[in-house]
Amino acid sequence: MSAEDQELRQIFLLECEELVTLAESSVETLRAAPTEDAIHALFRAVHSIKGGAGAFGLDHLASFAHVFETYMDLLRKGKSTLDDAAVDLLFDGVDVLRQLSDEARDGEKASTQRYEAALAALRAAAGLEEDAAAAKPPPADFDPMAEFEAQMAAAPAADEAPRRKYKIRFVPGPKLLEAGIDPLRILGVLKTLGELQVEIAGQLPPLADLDAQICAWSWTGTLETAAPQADLDDVRDMIDDLAVFEFEGEAPPPAPEPEKPVAAASAAPAPKKQAAAQAAEPAKPRDKPVATVRVDVPKLERLGNMVGELIITQAFLARQASGLDPETHRPLFRALDEMGQHIREVADAATSIRAQPLKAVFSRFGSLVRDLEKTTGKRIRLEIVGDHTEIDKTVVERLSEPLTHLIRNSIDHGIENAEGRAAAGKDPIGQLRLSAEQRGAQVVIELVDDGKGINRERVLAKAIERELVSPGAMLSDQEIDELIFLPGFSTADQITSVSGRGVGMDAVRQVIEEMGGNVALTSRPGEGTTFSLTLPLSLAILDAMVTLVGRQNYLVPISAIIDCLRPEASAIVRMDDRGAMLAWRGQILRILPLATEFGVAGAESDPTRAILILVKPSGGETVAIQVDDLIGQEPVVVKSLERNYRKVRGVSGATILGDGRPALILDLSSLMAVDGRNRRMPRAAAEG
């Protein structure tokens, strides 16, 4: 395979991943509320996968998609029933399509057992014979248009159906000829359906601009036919994404009704009249695809790095100009302001380019939940909300593993079986809700189950048994819940394939914190558990408040700051076991002196002569961070400290300030958790 063919193959595999995600979403829609649009969307996705796989010699994928498409054709033509068993079969089929596409892309062998089982089930449902000929994939020179022409020619003629006139518009796309589809053959197919009249629309470009690889003409016309609208849908599906094919039907003339007895005059309209009225409805317009271009990730990384350098340079210029008189150098300050605004727009654009919708991750969990239903014997209803929320591509790629851990443990340990739920007065079907929402410069992902919640007595007993907590320790409910994140902690008495709220939970927290986020947990006994994952919208650029502690600079994310103040002496409360506390708006808040946390010499120790920054990370408590002074707010470029040095607790990264000095960016959730464990928990638990 040439380098060019290899590149085209990789492009197809990326498109295949998107098509599989679309197919899975369509099946989810069919399970909730079957619609014709969802059936057609699923058919088109499978059809596109089959055509591309056959062109690139992906035999397993092409042959499986071919059988899948055959079954889908029966469903959309109403020749097969879409019941619960059919939906389960569709889910299995989409799962195998994903495995086969992953195998083609990554080289990892798909499950042969699952492939063969799903293939056999689809063959049986589609009424295909189990023989060698049926198992063969389309050949490399497979002509989908020829197969389509044969199918349309073999279709039975309508028996005295009312003729209907359609207005048709056809505009070829730039890839139509490259895909091997001749527009004249499309006209030929339409002529087999009835009387076709065509007018050329638009003009050909000048000869110097004419490209032989691109069809430059379009047409409009009318088709009078007795064929069902589904045949026109087939034509549109055949050239899906390769051309615009729109049609709108006019209502057929009403058929004469036989004379009826007077007594029947008030009877309800006949079903045939209802069907005719429905047939008169115009075909729904399809959304036009958004033009896209694929860019290599290294190029995006380079763009991000260059934007970061621009931000650092802009901060340096602003710092240098701060000593000048604004009135004397008004044009300079105006230019600096405009430059800062433009750089911010460029930074936002670069961030949006790297952003991807969470649907790429969330769509995979339907299959996981169905597998766990079979393993645990529980019935689960998964609700996904906000999967259109976008976040940095790097975060999307790393989210699958931690969310998988959380879902497995919620189903295994959180949600009761049907008998337990019935005894608790709950719906026998467990509820699992996965949602995402952007809040400022952060994205919050929540996983909520309606299970029995965390058994805190059992968790504490296990922690004492494993010597993670001292026997006499007095822990709050929140601190007990936090124990499940300790390495190796589990309440399971025996190991199973999905056992242990706590097995892998330390890995969940580690992965999220490595991405600059945090994990919060709330549990309600008998009602359920909520995991909240808070992640930065971008891993590259951050709006931060620059602070001074001693002679060191520390940066606090702006999104977490509530207020900044210099407290009065009356607002400081001294407590023996917790040190100085702040009385603020009816609350008693912890004070975290950064000088103490990081061992900075020469810093102000008296809170009344320092500045307190009140912060509240998403899902966390409000805490007062003590610093010496505030320098100002500025956008900064986040550099990984762990990648270049090592992981430091309480620090999410580092940056270069406008004056050229390095500064640390605070990880507030980690900092608060470390401080809380050191102050209130036994040493063994704090070190875990």
Q: Gyration radius, to the nearest Å?
A: 32 Å
Round the mean pLDDT to the nearest integer and report it.
Answer: 79
CATH level 4 superfamily of the largest domain: Histidine kinase-like ATPase, C-terminal domain
Widest sheet: strand ordering = 14-18-19-17-16-15
CATH fold field value of the largest domain:
Heat Shock Protein 90
Number of domain modules: 5
The CATH class designation of the largest domain is Alpha Beta
Estimate what percentage of residues fall within beta strands.
15-25%
Query: Which CATH architecture of the largest domain would you pick?
Result: 2-Layer Sandwich
Largest sheet: 6 strands, mixed
Please give the share of residues in helix: 40-55%
**So what's the overall shape?**
globular
Output the number of helix runs.
23
Count the strands?
22
**Unreliable sequence segments:** 131-135, 258-289, 677-688
Structural class: alpha+beta
**Ends distance:** 53 Å
What does this structure look like?
The chain is an alpha+beta fold and 688 residues long. It has five domains: 3-142, Four Helix Bundle (Hemerythrin (Met), subunit A) (Up-down Bundle), CATH 1.20.120.160; 157-251, Ribosomal protein S6/Translation elongation factor EF1B (Alpha-Beta Plaits); 298-355; 358-536, 2-Layer Sandwich (Heat Shock Protein 90), CATH 3.30.565; 541-678, Roll (SH3 type barrels), CATH 2.30.30. Helices cover 43% and strands 21% of the residues. The protein is built from 23 helices and 22 strands. The strands form five sheets. It has a six-stranded mixed sheet with strand order 14-18-19-17-16-15. Helix 1 packs antiparallel against helix 2 (36-55), helix 1 packs antiparallel against helix 4 and helix 11 runs antiparallel to helix 12. The longest helix is centred in the first third of the chain and has 30 residues, at 3-32. The two termini are 53 Å apart.
